[in-house]
C-alpha cells in the first residue's frame, strides 16, 4: 500500500477549504495594499538559492531538496519565495517599470526538516515583496500588512523587531561578537559559524549557546547614524499605526540577504514553534542577483502554523448558497435540463445522482448547505411551474418554468 511521503499531507475537502479561505483573505488584503500576484516556478537553479539565501545558512547546508535533471543541471525545489521573486524581477527587467513595485505570492515551499506540529517538508507561505523604496515607510507598510492579516483572522500575535544595520555596521559588530565568543563554550555548529557567519550564532536554540550570549554585545550599540535613524523611524511609524512591538537585539532571521530592519510575528500558543512568519529589508539582493541597485523589503507568513491555530475567521459558519434540485423519475432528466443553465449564471447547483427519495434529497440539500431547494415533479412540469423552498425558513413559492433561471439567479443569497 502506497503512503504519503513523510513531512507532507493530503488536504481533504474540509481542510482544503480552510486553506482556500486563508488564501482568499491574504489575496484580498494584498490587493488592498496595491500588491499584484507574481507566480514563480516551484524549482530554480540551485545557485540562485545558494547565492541569495547564503551558503552557510541552515537552509542551504541542510534543508534544500536538490537534484540533477537529465541535462545534469543542478535544480532545487524552492525553500523560500523571495529569491525566485527577485530573480523574476531582474530577469524580466521589471525595474524599468514604475517603482515602487509590489508583488505577492501564495504557494508551497520545500525544506528537509524534522516534521512536527506546524512544520512540514512541503510547507505553505504567503509573502509580499516591495521593490524600489528605501525609506522606513516601506518597512512599516509591509509589517502593517502582516499584522493586519493576523488581526483579520482573529489571531493574537506579537511583533518582534530589530535592526541588524548595514554592511558596515555588521562588520564592526561581527568583530565585537567574535572577540566576545572566543574561548567560550558553544555548540559544535556555532563554533563553525563563528568562523564563517558569526551572526548565525545569535539564532542558535541550544541552551549552552543561549547562556553564553546573555552578556554578549548588542548590535544596537553598533548601528551607524543612518541605520539608527532608519530604525527609529520604523518604530515611530508602527507606533503611529497603533501596532505594538518589542525589540529583540538577537533577532537576525535565518537568511543572509537581510539588512537593517528584521521582524517576526510570534505566538505563545504553539509551544517551541512560536514564529508565525517574518521578514525584513534586503537592499543588496537585487544587485547580487544581477540587477541594478534597487532597495527592497518583504515578508513571508507560515500558513501551516497559522491554520494550526484554528483562527476564529475560519470557524464562522459559511452562509448557505446555491440551489439543490429535488426531483424524481420519470422527469429527472428533463428537470436537470431546465435547471442546468443556472450554472452558467454562476449559481451553485447540485442534485442527486443515485435516485434517492424526496426526503433523502432534502437531507442532501441541507448537508451541502444550500440556500434553496428547487422542486420539480411530474405535476409541476405539466403545470409549467416549479416550487422553490427556502432552506432557512421552510417557506415555499411557485416559480414559472419559463422564467426559472432568471428568477432564481436574481434571488439574494443564491450566488
Please outline the helices and strands.
Layout: H1 13-32, E1 36-37, E2 43-45, H2 46-53, H3 58-63, E3 66-68, E4 74-77, H4 82-91, E5 101-110, E6 122-131, H5 136-153, E7 158-163, H6 167-181, H7 188-196, H8 207-212, H9 225-240, E8 246-247, E9 259-266, E10 275-281, H10 285-288, E11 296-302, H11 303-308, H12 312-315, E12 323-327, H13 332-339, H14 341-344, E13 349-351, H15 358-367, E14 372-376, H16 378-383, E15 385-390, E16 396-400, H17 404-410
Parallel strand pairs: 1-5, 7-8, 12-13, 12-14
Antiparallel strand pairs: 2-4, 3-4, 5-6, 6-11, 7-9, 9-10, 10-11, 14-15, 15-16
Structure characterization notes:
The chain has 415 residues and is α+β, with helices and mostly antiparallel strands. The chain folds into two domains: 13-166 and 224-315, Bira Bifunctional Protein, Domain 2 (BirA Bifunctional Protein, domain 2, 2-Layer Sandwich); 323-410, Rossmann fold. It has helices at residues 13-32, 46-53, 58-63, 82-91, 136-153, 167-181, 188-196, 207-212, 225-240, 285-288, 303-308, 312-315, 332-339, 341-344, 358-367, 378-383, 404-410; strands at residues 36-37, 43-45, 66-68, 74-77, 101-110, 122-131, 158-163, 246-247, 259-266, 275-281, 296-302, 323-327, 349-351, 372-376, 385-390, 396-400. The strands form three sheets. The chain has an eight-stranded mixed beta sheet with strand order 1-5-6-11-10-9-7-8.
